[in-house]
Amino acid sequence: MLHIISKVPLTAPLFDRLGTNASDSVIVIGDAVITLMREGEWANYWEAVLANMNVSVLAVDLALRGIGESDIVCALNIVDYSGFVDLTVDHSVMHSWH
């Protein structure tokens, strides 16, 4: 399953669901990219998810918010729109978290 996370605020139950299946992937887009900040309140949650599954972030959404690669938690895959499409092709089931 591909989890598409685009809105804030995030919740702890969302993170309880993420990371439970290593074959799942996550892409963070839109306003949700701000939750990826290395010094942010959600950094520890993201690091736990990253230990178990692939997490990507849409590069254009980072750029639009002035967030650099050094500002976000480690081990994220930064992808362009083509990479986003590749993720949708790789996962036949998708769930958008709003």
Reading side by side through the largest sheet, how are the strands ordered? 4-3-2-1-5
- Taken together, the total number of domains comes to 1
What order do the SSEs take from the amino end to the carboxyl end, as H and E? EHEHEHEHE
CATH superfamily: DsrEFH-like
How big a fraction of the residues is strand?
15-25%
Averaging pLDDT over every residue, what do you get? 94
Architecture in CATH? 3-Layer(aba) Sandwich
Name the poorly predicted regions: none
Bulk shape = globular
The CATH topology? Hypothetical Protein Ychn, Chain: A
Strand elements, count: 5
> What is the number of helices?
4
Radius of gyration: 12 Å
Helix content percent band:
25-40%
Task: Decide which structural class fits the backbone.
Answer: alpha/beta
Distance between the termini: 16 Å
CATH class group: Alpha Beta
The biggest beta sheet is recorded as: 5 strands, parallel
